[in-house]
Design goal:
Two copies of one chain form a homodimer. Chain A contains 14 helices and twelve strands. Chain A is α/β, with parallel strands linked by helices and 327 residues long. Chain A is globular and about 55 Å long.
């Protein structure tokens, strides 16, 4: 950890420590390739399949690093977060593996399936009203009553260091695939995965270009990148529901210092790319994970002839409601 | 190859030769595990993901072995088959890699998507009427006119030897997973995959029990197994549409000599297992591939506490028509 203008920013040593710490609890996910998609895109893509990860998403890396980095005394009081997505599942999973409580504050109106999933991993849900005020009030009460350690979904140095293990593992695995990659593409929402990618690659492979992929309809990171400061949108609407949250100061540190570019794709392009991946690669991935492929297909010139790593971030999707079946 | 009562039966040497021959053209597919499904089933399962295979199914192993085993002179005349399923795709793929024609006889009424898929891999379709007589007539004509080599979907020693490379590769990969498996489960239709599995395992791991998994509604192999001779059903109806075809003499040789048991599952159990795998393992698999898991969940006592290999045979499925969304 280092101090950058008063912020605790993780270093590559933290990524190495995280890799050792979380190894017993996570999958070493495979890299898949598709010559059909390569031909279509005009580049050679290597998909790091974190949709096969424990709890169904890369987020388990950061959550597990946070949970297993706690002292026994701290751990005994548990961990807490507010999220209704993959971070809540991941933190519940990690806490369960350590045998400590995980408190999750979720809106009363969140889908039953999401509540069931969190409870399925052992998370303890406290409901709030669907406003930021209520969420913050309820969360503060849970924190005060339990003494649980708050693990933010992305603006937490332990989480960013944990996400950094993904590209570390990827680069190790690429040794079996001939030459290394020249570019790495990952979706960007709050920026946890991209920050971990920046942290690792800027250290071990600084020439690799890092491209963040974002829905056109939730392009706050792209606009922030061009403006030179964080722009946060209020409730953007996109099928890529994992990517609606804004950058925060720690992820902005990495995005502003290490990302090569942020490219966007339309809703239809995202849905088409999602369906294409299901059909040709036979993997179940979330809409958010399809954004990198959508961006690559839209910007063929940027990626032409390159070896490109693609992070498939998660596979938690409602199988009864697939986006190409709606409307 | 050896002669058994006048039949050309492949030997383990043919599997080794096949592995070398097809290596440049196929994927070394990963093994995935799911602690959730293990807990549910009460055994430890290792899923060999042939749904990620080239052309989307294990069938490319046998087809590629047949195509690349041809002399240049034979190859120049091409290959031919009658199938509207994964074998047609696989043979078209393999022929395309060798740069030779692949003739596929298909019913005029076959779904457009299947025709498009075969053509997408370079297959040349000749249409027939939806009767066995018409199919045989048309096929004989195509064979006579082209001199193409007939590659049967499963009752062909080259195909069986090719499918045998799947468990060979699986057993090699299991060295990274601690102990080897004690049981191996694969779906059974015509018996090509099961025969290849028997061929390989009876040679390198004869103690491994081989369980064939079949839909209750297309249980001709199970009934054949108990009767001691081939029973062929006429047009069984099951969601597992890859498993409707009957055993033939070469696959019966392996099934009758090496299979430990054939277990069945109901249509609903197959659909439930399919959905469960999509939801928890994040992989797109065909209904046929879900039959092994369905059988394991139905017969927990048979598999209790065991290490079990499961062949996920293919992932070619209509994404607009998922069985849990119908009726």
């Amino acid at each position: 950890m280092k101090d950058v203008n008063g912020l605790d920013i993780p270093t590559f040593d933290d990524v190495i420590a995280a890799q050792d710490r979380i190894r017993p609890y996570i999958h070493r996910t495979p890299i898949l390739t598709s010559s059909f998609l390569n031909e279509m895109a005009g580049c050679e893509m290597f998909f790091k399949c974190e949709n096969f990860q424990k709890a169904g998403a890369f987020k388990v890396r950061g959550a597990t690093n946070a949970v297993f980095g706690l002292s026994d005394e701290m751990a005994a009081r548990g961990v807490a977060t507010h999220s209704s997505g993959n971070h809540a599942l991941s933190l519940s999973y990690a806490a369960g593996r350590r045998g400590i409580p995980c408190h999750v504050v979720m809106p009363r109106a969140a889908p039953q399936a999401k509540k069931d999933a969190v409870r399925g991993y052992g998370g303890i849900i406290t409901e709030c009203e669907p406003s930021t005020t209520s969420r913050e009030e309820v969360f503060a009460r849970v924190e005060a009553e339990t003494g649980a350690d708050f693990v933010h979904p992305y603006n937490d140095p332990r989480v960013i260091a944990g996400q950094g293990t993904c590209s570390l593992e990827f680069m190790e695995q690429m040794e079996e695939h001939g030459a290394p990659v020249e570019m790495m593409v990952a979706p960007i929402g709050g920026g946890g995965m991209i920050s971990g990618t920046c942290l690792t690659l800027s250290h071990i492979a600084p020439k690799v270009q890092i491209i963040a992929a974002e829905p056109e309809q939730a392009d706050d990171a792209a606009r922030s990148f061009r403006a030179g400061h964080i722009i946060a949108d209020d409730a953007p609407v996109t099928v890529a529901d994992g990517l609606k949250v804004p950058l925060k100061e720690r992820t902005w540190h990495f995005v502003s210092n290490h990302v090569t570019d942020i490219l966007t794709a339309s809703e239809q392009e995202i849905i088409d790319a999602m369906r294409l991946t299901w059909a040709r690669m036979k993997i179940v991935m979330e809409p958010s994970c399809a954004v990198p492929l959508a961006v690559i297909l839209r910007n063929r010139d940027v990626f032409a002839g390159k070896r490109v790593g693609v992070v498939v971030t998660g596979g938690n999707v409602d199988l009864d409601k697939l986006p190409w079946m709606q409307g």
